[in-house]
């Protein structure tokens, strides 16, 4: 049945599906969601055990990033995209400040290893913010208004501009080159953390009083490897 002149047809991507086609496979989506939520829960647990305010903030930010990445998989709360980008960008700046802080600030990253860790976490937060923006671009390009028969193109253009979600202003062009670069970066990071994890496993057994810290380090390396692998996979799906 033909639409009446002046009628505007809305084409909207179903919100129940993931904005990444490969993640519409339930097994993959649920597996990655479980990994992200378990990692976030561990970060919250570690934050409650820590007695240092800076460490508590850092771990809470990591937990929040994991939750936001899980919401990306399910395309939840798209209206909060601007807020998500703002929070993740702020977290990236926070870790960057810690990475370059003067040695006198003992509560921030001190020593070469800690500074490298904070620099990597800053890049991780920035990568998550880019991921939100890139996924937002995929979502908004799946939404639009098409003129029905008999509608003039100038009118249709005006209607599309007026009804585009405000969040689209925060999206960036879907650049396959950028996605490939980030895929390689986080894939390499995952391999580095796997190597560090294996190195700790091959070392001699520590005394009993050092068992807990070593277990914590191994767990941290394992979670970092999983997190980097998940980010690499999510960026890899955007290379097409």
Question: What is the number of helical segments per DSSP (H or I, 4+ residues)?
Answer: 7
Identify the overall geometry: globular
Distance between the termini: 36 Å
* Rg, Å, rounded: 22 Å
The percentage helix is: 55-70%
Q: What's the assembly state of these chains?
A: single chain
- Structural class label: mainly alpha
What summary fits the major beta sheet? 2 strands, antiparallel
How many β-strands, per DSSP?
2
Q: Strand fraction band?
A: under 5%
List low-pLDDT spans: 7-19, 142-172, 204-212
Kindly report the average pLDDT value: 76
Strand order of the largest sheet: 1-2
**Could you spell the SSE succession in H and E letters?**
EHHHHEHHH
What is this structure's SSE topology?
Layout: E1 8-11, H1 26-49, H2 53-74, H3 81-99, H4 112-141, E2 144-147, H5 153-163, H6 176-202, H7 211-236
Antiparallel strand pairs: 1-2
Describe this entry's structure for a reader:
It is a single chain. Mean pLDDT is 76; it is low at 7-19, 142-172 and 204-212. With 240 residues, the protein is mainly α. The longest helix is centred in the middle third of the chain and has 30 residues, at 112-141. The two termini are 36 Å apart. The chain has a two-stranded antiparallel ribbon with strand order 1-2. 28% of the residues are buried. Helix 1 (26-49) packs antiparallel against helix 2 and helix 3 packs antiparallel against helix 4. It has helices spanning 26-49, 53-74, 81-99, 112-141, 153-163, 176-202, 211-236; strands at 8-11, 144-147.
């Amino acid at each position: 049945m033909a639409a009446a002149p002046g009628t505007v047809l809305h084409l909207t991507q179903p919100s129940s599906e993931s904005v990444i086609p490969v993640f519409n496979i339930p097994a993959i989506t649920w597996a990655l969601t479980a990994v992200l939520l378990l990692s976030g829960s561990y970060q919250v647990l570690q934050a409650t055990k820590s007695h240092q305010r800076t460490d508590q903030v850092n771990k809470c930010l990591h937990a929040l990033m994991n939750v936001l990445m899980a919401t990306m998989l399910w395309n939840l709360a798209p209206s909060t995209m601007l807020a998500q980008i703002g929070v993740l960008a702020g977290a990236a700046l926070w870790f960057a400040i810690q990475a370059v802080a003067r040695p006198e600030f003992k509560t921030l990253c001190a020593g070469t290893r800690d500074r490298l860790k904070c620099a990597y976490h800053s890049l991780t937060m920035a990568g998550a913010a880019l991921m939100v923006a890139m996924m937002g671009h995929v979502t908004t390009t799946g939404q639009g208004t098409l003129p029905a028969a008999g509608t003039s193109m100038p009118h249709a253009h005006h209607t599309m501009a007026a009804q585009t979600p405000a969040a689209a202003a925060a999206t960036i062009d879907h650049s396959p080159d950028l996605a490939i670069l980030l895929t390689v970066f986080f894939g390499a990071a995952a391999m580095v953390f796997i190597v560090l994890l294996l190195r700790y496993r091959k070392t001699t057994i520590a005394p009993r009083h050092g068992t807990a810290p070593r277990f914590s380090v191994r767990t941290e390396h394992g979670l970092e490897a999983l997190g980097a692998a998940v980010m690499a996979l999510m960026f890899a799906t955007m290379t097409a």
